Amino acid sequence: MSTSKVVIVTGASQGIGAQTVKAFLARGHRVVATSRSIAPSDDPNLVTVAGDIGEPDTARRVIEAAIARFGRVDTLVNNAGIFIARPFTQYTPQDYAAITSVNLNGFFHITQLAIEQMQKNGSGHVVSITTTLADQANHNVPSVLASLTKGGLNAATKSLAIEYAAAGIRANVVSPGIIKSPMHAEETHAALAALHPMGRMGEMSDIVDAILYLDSAPFVTGEILHVDGGQSAGH
Question: Which of 30-34, 115-119, 194-198 has the lowest mean pLDDT?
């Protein structure tokens, strides 16, 4: 891209988030990266903010860092998320609190503040990472709380896309299948690969490429882009 953007990435210390940060930096963009345990940065194009994304104060500090360092917010990648696969009746109140804090509160607070900044510029893009299980449940992967929260983000994204279309702000979703990342131990890969019609797990680069595509597609908004090896198509 010829124009440098200011991009916020949540859940940025490892996995898809960390790869997303690298990809945007490699394309000449400036990035504000946040997670609970993220390390300080010496890169002039990267500022890091440590904190719990479910807390309003973290969202405020991230936006303030973006404005103080780079002067604007162009793109927000809502990557932070928690997934706990367990039978519905076995979820604990602690599970529920943790999942809703990161998946819902973590979306709400920072997206609200980011869109306020985007409105000042007359443009912007919010892309959120959800899960294909919200569209196509699988009895091998109990996932009610993932569907409750990430499915909610799918619906909220469509609402955001319509509400802010005239303001020049787009909202989209990348909906992954099961991706090779630090979240999944290597000994589980064969079983997880078999859950996809294409017979393999996705790579982190598959999701990063989808994020980059959506960010560079000015006529695409309200889209739920499935990157799931065919899972959402059926079984």
Answer: 194-198
CA angle at residue 211 from 207 to 216, to 5 degrees?
A: 145
Residue 234 falls inside a structural domain: no
Report pLDDT digits (tens) over 89-140.
Answer: 999 999 999 999 999 999 999 999 999 999 999 999 999 999 999 998 888 8
233 lies in some domain: no
Tell whether 80 is covered by a domain. yes
Please say whether the beta carbons of 134 and 146 come within 8 A: yes
Structural domains of the chain, count: 1
Report residue 136 as tokens. Answer: 């196509």
Token digits for 114? 């980011």
**CATH number of the domain enclosing 59:** 3.40.50.720
**Owning domain of residue 102:** 6-228
